[in-house]
């Protein structure tokens, strides 16, 4: 595994960003904060322009985060012993791999699906963030049973002909194994015209992942901004997740400013931590 090193300039920049991320105001300083039931994390697609594993680890350390949902350009598919070795390296750096994806299952064929589940098993993914075609859905669900790896189907908004909204997923998976569930992308859910907190209640116990983002306009993909700068009801979302006792992660998926993501990512994580503090939780 190739590990790049940062320049002194970028390292200093990272330290400054990390300080900003941890400088959340202590609104409840007079009270003891409870451990947060919500775990914050990152979808590694956020750092898609930075393919070297060491870069990803450095970003996570700067943000003081450990939960990571790995995309395949950060953990490539290949020989299974190499997949395991590379996944174990991330863990040795203090990261917790909470899932992998998005992984697409376009072919209704055992061979194709098995290869992707073998990859997930070698990596130690407890959850596959996935997008199966309608035709492949039942076959993919059979592999969920065989491998005992959850499948969280990711909605991708109005442009997605398969899964525009979580409600479209719900209509197809009701009779499938309960380990087939949801990755609710809050931005794409809003753009599909759905109320995000109500959607979270609707999917309930089959919610296995949240992809967090924010929008300045509810129906425009191009209006994405740092979390806290738009109209996403972050506090209501967190309150709903606590109410349903959601056990998973809230993974920031920051899809803008790919070549310089850290300012927006840092602001987003700081906003999430601030909201949790206002709710009485440490983050």
Automatic annotation (TrEMBL):
SUPFAM superfamilies: Xylose isomerase-like
Transmembrane segments: none
Segments forming a coiled coil: none
This protein's record includes keyword Isomerase: yes
GO MF, any single term: isomerase activity
Sequence ranges assigned to domain Xylose isomerase-like TIM barrel in this UniProt record: 136-262
Signal peptide coordinates: none
Keywords, ordered alphabetically: Isomerase
InterPro entries (UniProt xref): IolE/XylAMocC-like (IPR050312), TAT_signal (IPR006311), Xyl_isomerase-like_sf (IPR036237), Xyl_isomerase-like_TIM-brl (IPR013022)
Alphabetized Pfam families for the sequence: AP_endonuc_2 (PF01261)
PANTHER family, sorted: HYDROXYPYRUVATE ISOMERASE, INOSOSE DEHYDRATASE
Protein name as annotated: Sugar phosphate isomerase/epimerase
Lineage of source species: Bacteria, Pseudomonadati, Acidobacteriota, Terriglobia, Terriglobales
């Amino acid at each position: 595994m190739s590990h790049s090193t940062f320049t002194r300039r970028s390292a200093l920049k990272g330290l400054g960003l990390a300080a900003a991320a941890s400088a959340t105001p202590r609104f409840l300083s007079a009270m003891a904060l409870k451990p947060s039931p919500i775990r914050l994390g990152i979808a590694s697609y956020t750092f898609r322009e930075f393919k070297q594993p060491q870069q990803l680890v450095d970003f996570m350390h700067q943000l003081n985060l450990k939960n990571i949902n790995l995309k395949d350009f950060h953990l490539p598919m290949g020989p299974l012993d190499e997949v395991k070795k590379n996944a174990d390296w991330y863990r040795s750096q203090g990261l917790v791999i909470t899932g992998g994806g998005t992984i697409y299952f376009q072919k209704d064929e055992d061979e194709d699906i098995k290869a992707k589940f073998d990859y997930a098993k070698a990596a130690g993914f407890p959850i596959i963030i996935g997008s199966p075609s309608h035709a492949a859905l039942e076959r993919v669900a059979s592999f969920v049973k065989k491998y005992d790896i959850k499948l969280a189907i990711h909605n991708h908004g109005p442009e997605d002909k398969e899964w525009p909204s979580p409600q479209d997923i719900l209509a197809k998976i009701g009779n499938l194994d309960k380990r087939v569930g949801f990755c609710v992308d809050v931005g794409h859910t809003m753009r599909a015209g759905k109320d995000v907190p109500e959607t979270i209640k609707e999917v309930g116990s089959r919610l296995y992942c949240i992809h967090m983002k924010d929008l300045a306009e509810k129906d425009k993909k191009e209006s994405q901004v740092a979390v806290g700068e738009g109209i996403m009801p972050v506090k209501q979302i967190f309150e709903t997740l606590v109410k349903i006792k959601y056990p998973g992660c809230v993974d920031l998926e920051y899809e803008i400013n790919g070549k310089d993501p850290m300012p927006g990512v840092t602001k987003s994580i700081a906003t999430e931590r601030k909201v949790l503090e206002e709710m009485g939780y440490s983050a």
